[in-house]
Each structure stands twice: as structure tokens, then as C-alpha cells.
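Margin note from the TA: students keep mixing up input and output lines. Inputs are the sequences; the output is the structure of the whole complex. Example:
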Amino acid sequence: MANLEALYQEVILDHNRKPRNFREIEHADRRIEGRNPLCGDEITVWLKLDGDRVADVSFKGQGCAISKSSASLMTAAVKGKTRDETRELFERFHQMITGKMAEADREKMGSLAALGGVSKFPIRVKCASLSWHALKAALDGGGQEVSTEHVGPPQTEGA
Amino acid sequence: MKPRIGGSTSRETMPRSMRAQAQTKSRRDDFPLLVVHPNLHYLDSAATSQKPAVVLDAIRRYYEHDNANPHRGAYDLSARATQRYAESRERVARFLGVADENTLIFTRGTTEALNLVATAWGRTNVQRDDEILVTGMEHHANFVPWQQLALANGAKLRICGLTDDGRIDLARFQSFLGAKTKVVAFNHVSNALGTINPVREIAALVRERAASAVIVIDGAQSAPHLRVRVDELGVDFFAFSGHKMLGPMGIGGLVGRRELLETMPPYQMGGDMIEFVGDDRTTWNVLPHKFEAGTPNVADAVGLAAACDYLDGIGMDVVRAHELELLDPMMAKLSAGSGVRIYGPRDLTLRSGVVSFTVEGIHPHDLSTVLDQDGVCIRAGHHCAQPLMRRMNVPATARASVYVYNTDADVDALIRGVDRAKEMFGT
């Protein structure tokens, strides 16, 4: 019960209902689709760079509360950051949601800390990281689909 | 002291509903996993069923008493293993209404059975510009093999649309049939919608309008839940899985028409499936061995036969009636709540024990996570039926499915959980 409430914090529910930066960027430098082949979630991330910095980032798509709120929080967190800072933030975010970060360090994650509860739900790690994988691929110059299939414990869908 | 006949504790004197509950309660006790987890509400039997103790015992007994490589050793133990395997085939064939048990090929499950047909029959017989007809409600296992066969052989894949309530649109289906139709493949019961398709009626249509087509049925969701007589369906191939019908994972089968199986090339090559191996040519063993290369999965075949005994012990008509008794209140209670949409036919006679639904404002994965906290196991996602999801215009649904061990308590737990999720997500 406590775990469930830690997962679906008010911040998460709020970003799920009213996702931020839920729009297209007209003259984006990169547009990339992230897809979770196991559950059908699809997300598109738009990225506009100003030199080495993220000038604007947005997303659209459909998914669960975790993937939607994570994408929303991500767009707010990385705006203005350099590529390296963004990659480094993803690294730490990933450590947090996979339970590899000390509780005390979560506080340094700012608003992203709201997703810390995911660490108690390993099968939801792929939901929380879908948009980040898309963003990272966009930063790395990719324009192809990215997949989160390798994230988290193996999970395949039977009938 | 002699027990009093017709005493007040006897089941016969209980009201009907109580009696049904008592029967299910004792049936739940037949399943070790459900005994070990008394608070579990397992509503995902369409994905895989739990296993009764008699199945687990049969597998163990085989390994303890009869295990050897069948069809090989000239010693008594190997002969016994061979015997157990043959008996199991005969038992499963009888369960499915198949008179000629040697037309039942054991496979790993439905997926392998369908791939066997698409490869061994399909690659040889489907020509350029031929047509393969499937429906918009197929599981990927009965869709992708045909799509890839069409691509490989230059044939055309036709996908028949559905009615708004998730049935095959028979008028459209009919219009797809013709001289070019070489394969007609569809499921007996939809895993995502629960729709029971009128196989015999459709098979008759195919024979009338597409005489050169083979009819392939995905029976993964029908064999466990309906009284299926494969010989009476009028089809050419019928695929099924053991693990969805109380049997172990890794065993299932393909029933095929003898003339077709005999003329088809083998699917896999190796031991057991040969008659004579020369340096430059090989001749094939007789049915069913021609399609069972390598050491067979004897233990799981024995387990599947035990599952057939268990199901026949209940009676497949009773299994079906029990599922309807749960399905009716489940659908009524779900629909009574706000924002719930149920997919598939409303008419219960057209539906197996599967309820696919969405709750407005709550993604099925979130719903599943909330339910899981109360021990309610449902499936959330695309159910390996992405073409169907596109047609219904939903990315995912939640799916609850029932079987012999489910009770009213499972249905009530589901409803409570859905209400709690609504409260939590403020919908």
C-alpha cells in the first residue's frame, strides 16, 4: 500500500492529467519516436538545440501515468542543460528508478525525485525510461526509433 | 456411527448457489499455487492457467517410474516411456474429439503448431498472387507467420474487418473468398475479446467459395474452455496449447487432416522423424513421428493427458457454465461503474470467459499495478494482437479472464480494485 502511494504521488498524477510541454516544436532539430514493443506505448520527442544546450524539448504520445509523467518531468528538467549534463542526469535518473541510488541522494534529483517510487516496481522501469531513451538517442544524433526493450528485467508478453 | 443420509451438512441439501461456491472452493484446493497464495485472485488464465496437483503429480510420477528415451531402447523402461507417450496422445485426441490420434502432432504449443503449418504446408503450396485470408482479431502467432509467408512467396495477405462489437464481419469475409484463396486462418476464440467465432459456419462458407483453401484454426483459447470436437469442425488444421488448459508449459499440438499431413514435407529434421537415412537421401517416418523430430517431450505430454482427465472429470459443459456464472456479474458490475468500456460481444453466448475493458482516464498498466497490490492478477497491454488494437483504436486494454478455480470473491476483488483505482486517479 505504502509502495503504491509512493509510486502514484500527487506530482505524478498531476503531470499525468496535465502533461507539460505536451506539444510539437515546429522547427525542431530532431524528432524521434520511442516505442515500447512489449506494451505498445508510443512517444514522440521533439528537441531544439542552441549550440550545445537544450533550447526546447517537448513530447506527445500515449502511455501509462508513469511514462507520461516521466516524459513531462523530463522536459522541464533538461531545458537549458548541455548535452553532457542531460546525459549525466539520465544516468542518475536511471540509477534512481532501478534502486541503485541511496535514498538521501534522491533529494538532489529535484522534481524527478517524484519517480523514485518506480524502484519498488521493476516492471515499470521501462515506462519511466521510455522518453529518456528517446531524448538520449536524439542527443546522440539519432533520428530512428528507439526501443526500451533492453531496460529492466526481461519481460515478454504471451497471450 | 452410520452417517445420516441427507444430513444437513450434505451438499445435496444446500441451495444451488452455495453448492456451486462450495464446489469451486474445493476446486481451488486442487491447485497448489492457489493454496500457497490464498489471497491471490488469479484472473489471467487466458495467458496461462494454473496447474492442478494431479498434473504435477503425473509429471513427477513419469520421471520417477517410467523415464527413458522413447522409441529407442530395446529395454522395458524405454518401452514404458514409449507407451506413456502414446497413451497421452490418445488421451488428448479423445479430449479434443479426434478419432485418428496419429493426426495429432505434439508441438511446444499453438505458436509452433501454426508455424509448422505456415512453413511445411505454406512454403510448398502457396504461390505468387495466391491469397491468404486472416481476420483483424488474430493473435500475433496466427498473423505474423502468414504475413511472412505472403512476403516470402509473393502472395497477398487479406485481413478481414470486424463488426463494432468485435465479431468477424461475415459479409466482408465472404467477399474475400475466391479461387485465389489458399489459406484461411482465424481463431476459434479471440484471446483479446473473448469472441467465440462460428467455426463450422465459416468453414462451410470457405468450402463453398474457396475450394482450394486450407482452413487453419487457432484453438489456443477454445480447447481449454469449450467442448471442442475437432473432427466435427470441418477444418484442416487445429492448433492448441497445453499450458492454457491446466497442462504444463512446453506442450501443445497440431491436429491436421491426414491427407495433408502425409503430403506435406517435414518441418524439422533429425532423429525419430526418419525412416531411412542414406548418404544422399532420406525417407520420412509415418505420422505423427514425421513431424516430431528429436526426443519428444514425454513428461509434459503425460501432464497434459492428466489435465484432460481433470477437465473431463469436471465436464467441459460444467466448465463453460461456471465461466458464464462469473462472466455475467463481472460484466454487469464493471459496466455499472462510470467510465468503463467493455470490448467484444455483449451477448454472453458469443463470448468465452474473457473481459477486455478500459477505464477512462486510467491506463491499463496503471490499473494493473493498482490491482496487483490486492493480489488481483489481470493482463494489461495489447495482448499480442496489435492489428486488433489498431482497429479498435486503443493502445491497450485491461483483460480479466476466468477459469475453473475462480470464484465470486475474485470478481468482487476485481471490482473493488477498479473502484479504488478510479478514486486514486480522480476519475
